[in-house]
Amino acid sequence: MAEKDLCPCGSGKTYAECCESVIKTGKAATAEALMRARYSAYVKHEIDFIINSCEEGEKIAEIDRKATEEWSKESTWHGLKILRTEKGSENDTEGIVEFEATYTKRKGIRDVHHEIGYFKKIDGNWMYSVGSVKPMTVVREGRKIGRNEPCPCGSGKKYKQCCGR
Questions:
Q1: Nearest C-alpha neighbor of 146 from the set 127, 161, 128
Q2: Running DSSP on this structure, what letter comes out for residue 137?
Q3: pTM
């Protein structure tokens, strides 16, 4: 099986065996299956599925179609990692899927979208309800430069008088 035939969600199955049918029918067996299909929809630019798989209601925020489409098309998607699931089986009515989606933005900035997604089964169909994004901690590479140390740019000035302003 060629790597290009594998499902973007990382299940190890082909796209046709995995997320394609969920995206085409809008029906997922579990909350995790819906989450995997939503990730694959970002990779495959299936914006209608992303929008249509969201719960509707007055307390639910409107999805910005243009921003969603731009994020989908202007990103290079590297993978989905499911961190944990709570409930969300075929017999449940609610579920939680915590995940990380790794991607590179158009300007070459690699990022990780870490979210706890909440799902509901409405009329027998799993729907994405709401998510809370977990902010990523920025970790400095190398040691911190002191204010009075020579600037690493090579100007000969102290860091605080040069690049540390």
A1: 161
A2: P
A3: 0.79
